[in-house]
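Severity: low
Component: inverse-folding endpoint
Summary: output formatting inconsistent between runs
Steps to reproduce: submit the following structure tokens with default settings.
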């Protein structure tokens, strides 16, 4: 029953080294030349990004034990198309997580372009919009969506996996920033001092 869930866990972890390689733009250009280095980085970025997302989705939808928060547990919404029942309290919890997570992801892509989001190769530092609140809005949005979807689907193992997912996203963000400092130097260092990595500050 749980083979697909553990397969997705292994997949999420196994794809990270390729993601790390995809953001080493300067090293790839030194090794293969500028044009080939850029092309390789973009290919690595596309593969690692999409497979990371696919395996992440697998954590939500793979067969696993279901849970119910003992509040309004007898009230549920039934989706007849797939014959799936969603406890109302789970729906109440997941809605703000999903809404904010989706908004951050969409805004993040809009402000950097889809190509940059897919290939992990920015041409300049974006400091406005959602990037003025958090340095990695798409990853932060992904984590929020992860919690929301786990509640929506009552997926207990997916929810339990959240702390490790946070760690993996942190490692990816750390690696990306290490390379961004190499490429953009003081400009990115100054940006890091002003804006938090993953958890926005509550401003007065």
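Observed output (run 2 of 3):
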């Amino acid at each position: 029953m749980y083979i697909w869930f553990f397969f997705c866990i292994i997949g999420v972890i196994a794809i990270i080294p390729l993601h790390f390689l995809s953001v080493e733009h300067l090293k790839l250009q030194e090794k293969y030349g500028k044009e080939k280095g850029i092309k390789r980085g973009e290919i690595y970025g596309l593969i690692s990004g999409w497979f990371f997302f696919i395996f992440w989705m697998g954590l939500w939808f793979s067969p696993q034990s279901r849970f119910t928060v003992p509040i309004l547990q007898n009230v549920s919404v039934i989706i007849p198309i797939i014959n799936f029942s969603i406890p109302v309290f789970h729906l109440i919890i997941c809605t703000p997580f999903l809404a904010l997570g989706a908004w951050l992801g969409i805004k993040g892509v809009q402000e950097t372009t889809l190509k940059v989001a897919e290939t992990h190769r920015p041409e300049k530092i974006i400091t406005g919009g959602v990037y003025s609140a958090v340095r990695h809005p798409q990853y932060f949005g992904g984590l929020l969506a992860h919690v929301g979807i786990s509640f929506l689907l009552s997926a207990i193992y997916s929810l339990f996996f959240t702390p490790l997912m946070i760690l993996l996203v942190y490692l990816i963000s750390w690696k990306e920033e290490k390379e961004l400092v190499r490429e953009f130097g003081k400009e990115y260092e100054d940006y890091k001092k002003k804006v938090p990595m993953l958890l926005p500050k509550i401003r007065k």
